[in-house]
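Below is the data:
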Amino acid sequence: MQNAQCKKIHIVGSVGSGKTTFARLLAHRLKLPHYELDNVMWERTQEGDKRRSEADRIQALCGLQRWKEIWQRRRAQRTEN
């Protein structure tokens, strides 16, 4: 697995089955970024979760893309050193 190059890993399961916990552990072990897509669809507030508008979802996805680009640059810099 160390030499395998994974582009994406999707973890699917029922509510409360441990997907997020497993994904965090896997990302940490494989040294890969972890994107929790629930936070793209839902805005977490003290009053409860609110479904984001389409515009807000697009903005959240663009933020993930910027984060991914920063992560890839930092990873490349570590590899060069």
